[in-house]
Fold this sequence. Notes:
Helices cover 43% and strands 21% of the residues. By secondary structure, the protein is an alpha/beta fold. Strands 3-2-1-4-5-7-6 form a seven-stranded mixed sheet, with helices on both faces. The radius of gyration is 16 Å and the shape is globular. 46% of the residues are buried.
Amino acid sequence: MSRADLDKDPHDVAAMFDGVARRYDLTNTVLTAGQDRRWRRLTRDALGLRPGERVLDLAAGTCVSTVELRLSGAWCVAADFSLGMLRAGAHRPVPKVAADALHLPFRDGAFDAVTISFGLRNVADPDAALAELARVTRPGGRLVVCEFGRPRVAPFRAAYYVGLEHVLPAIARRVSSNPEAYAYLGESIRDWSAQPELARRIAAAGWSGVAWRDLALGAVALHRATRP
């Protein structure tokens, strides 16, 4: 079994996700009590996609999120640095690219919209990844980051962090193909920026009009922005 540390060495993170790929979709659905499906739909809605637009789904994993985006009629490509995750989604009929979030293999302004769901906190340099997403987005194009956040209400926040420490690993041991990885994932959620701080980081990376919408009482948030 493989897990990464919070220094987020790319090779360690990729190997860890290779290890969880086989049962990744099932584990996500169980851990979120099915809310992962709703969050994918809300991400698609937040992007405001139109038929024929070009969309990059970064950290797409098994490409289930890319299939959701394609329901809009847009042309969507899935990109991830875990070959194991892309192989696990090989049956899903969307273009797939093995790609490093810090060095995307696309020309400047290639996309009308870009998105990354539950992947930004696993990148070695999230600020550089946000800037790279801006580079490949046309002027006026849109960004949506769906990521874990910091719950607003103190009692719920305390219970949520206890759950990350104890409940998440227990469920992962029963469901995941690599339970050890979920210890890192819980740590990475606790260590991640709160919503106002992430909004500042998105703006500093070259995006404008940054706003967010809390989901699950702030345990998850959708951040939206536009490429100037």
